[in-house]
Design a protein that fits this description.
Length: 355
C-alpha cells in the first residue's frame, strides 16, 4: 500500500499534477538498467521541462520525500521500493540551432541514440563520443559524462563539459535560472549537482560542423569498444561500474586479482567481461547485489588492503543482504576478460612490429 499521505497532501498533489498520471504502487525495476527495484508509493512522469519543474516544486512545497529518475543507470533501488514520490523525467524535446551550431534539449532527452542521432543528422559534432552510454541529458551533467577520445589514438578522456554551453536549472532554493558551464564545477564523475539539490531542466550544447560519415565511424568504433568490455543491457542488465575509480590501480584490476570474476550471490554476478560490473542474471534482487558488493569489498580489503567505495547510488528501502554464501561460475564461451584482451592486443602489436 502507498504511503498514507494526508488527504490534504494527496489532494494538493492531484491538483498540481495531472491526476490521471499520478499512480500508486508502481514497481520501479523496469525503469532501471539493473532491472531491480520495488514499488514507489507514488509515481509521476513529467513529459515537459515545465511539468518537471512543477513536480519538483510541488514535492518540495509539500515536504514529500521524492526522487528524480532518468534512465535508471548508476543506481540500485531497494527491494522494498521508495517511500514517497518518484518523478520520472520524460521531458525529451530537442531543437537544433543550425545557425549557431547548437543543440538544445530538455533534461530527460536520451543521449544515445536520440540526442546523438539528432546531432549527427544535423552535421554537428561533439556528442558522438558518448554513443552507447545510457544517460539522460540531466544525468550526463550530473556525472560529467565521459569517454575516451576517438580511435586509433584514444589519447585522452573527453567530457560532456567540453561541449556544454549553458543549462536551465531549478535551484535548490526554487530559483529558475540559466547558468554557464563554470557553475557546475565539473570533475571526474563529479559536478555541483552532487552537492546541491539543483535540477537540470534543459541544456544547450555548443557543437561544431563535421562530416556525418566521420561521426558515424567514431560511433561505430566506440560501440565496438564498449561491446567487448561492457555487458549488453538487454540480456545482462547492470548499473555500470559499481566501485569508484582508484587512481593508478583501478577497482576492476583489484577485483580481478582477487579471483572474483564469475562470483555470484543469488543471480547477481561479477561479470567476466568487466570486473567492476555486477550483472543481473535474471531475477536478481537488491539484497543479492548488496551481499555481493560486501563480499567483493571484504575480499579485496583482506587480500590487498584497499577499500572499495561504491560508485552507484542506493535509493529507497532495502531488505537485509542475502545471507546465502557466494559461489563461482565458469566463464561463458566467447567472452574475453580484461587480461585476455590485453594479451590479445599485445600479440597483435607484436605481429605488426615483426612485419
Amino acid at each position: 500500500m502507498p504511503t498514507p499521505f494526508s488527504p490534504g497532501t494527496l489532494q494538493s498533489l492531484h491538483d498540481a499534477l495531472s491526476a490521471d498520471r499520478l499512480r500508486a504502487d508502481v514497481v520501479l525495476a523496469p525503469f532501471t538498467t539493473f532491472q531491480i527495484g520495488g514499488p514507489a508509493d507514488w509515481y509521476y512522469e513529467a513529459l515537459t521541462a515545465d511539468e518537471l519543474r512543477t513536480a519538483i516544486e510541488t514535492a518540495r512545497a509539500l515536504e514529500i520525500p521524492h526522487f528524480l529518475l532518468g534512465v535508471g543507470a548508476n543506481i540500485l533501488i531497494g527491494d522494498l521500493g521508495f517511500r514517497g514520490l518518484v518523478i520520472r523525467n520524460r521531458a525529451q524535446h530537442v531543437a537544433v540551432d543550425a545557425a549557431n551550431h547548437r543543440l538544445w534539449a530538455e533534461s530527460g532527452a536520451i543521449v544515445w541514440p536520440d540526442l546523438i542521432e539528432t546531432a549527427v543528422e544535423a552535421g554537428l559534432s561533439g556528442l558522438e563520443h558518448y554513443a552507447g552510454i545510457p544517460s539522460t541529458v540531466g544525468g550526463a551533467l550530473w556525472q560529467n559524462l565521459h569517454f575516451l577520445s576517438p580511435p586509433p589514438e584514444r589519447a585522452r578522456t573527453m567530457f560532456i563539459e567540453e561541449v556544454l554551453h549553458e543549462a536551465e536549472l531549478l535551484t535548490e532554493e526554487n530559483a529558475h535560472k540559466t547558468v554557464g558551464v563554470n557553475y557546475f564545477n565539473f570533475g571526474y564523475d563529479q559536478s555541483i549537482l552532487h552537492e546541491r539539490d539543483d535540477v537540470v531542466l534543459s541544456a544547450t550544447f555548443q557543437l561544431a560542423p563535421a562530416d556525418p560519415a566521420w561521426m558515424r565511424h567514431t560511433i561505430e568504433a566506440n560501440l565496438a569498444w564498449r561491446s567487448e568490455r561492457h555487458p549488453p543491457l538487454d540480456t545482462e542488465p547492470s548499473a555500470g561500474s559499481i566501485f569508484q575509480k582508484i587512481e593508478g590501480i583501478g577497482a576492476g584490476r583489484l577485483i580481478d586479482e582477487c579471483d572474483l570474476l564469475g562470483t555470484r550471490v543469488g543471480t547477481a554476478e561479477v561479470t567476466h567481461r568487466h570486473a567492476n560490473i555486477i550483472i543481473n542474471r535474471g531475477g536478481a534482487t537488491a539484497a543479492d547485489v548488496r551481499a555481493l558488493i560486501q563480499h567483493v569489498q571484504d575480499t579485496v580489503a583482506r587480500q590487498t588492503g584497499y577499500h572499495l567505495k561504491p560508485e552507484i547510488a542506493f535509493i529507497g528501502a532495502f531488505a537485509p543482504p542475502t545471507a546465502t554464501p557466494p559461489y563461482k561460475v565458469p566463464k561463458p564461451p566467447g567472452i574475453l576478460t580484461a587480461k585476455e584482451r590485453a594479451q590479445h592486443g599485445k600479440e597483435q602489436r607484436d605481429r605488426v612490429e615483426k612485419r
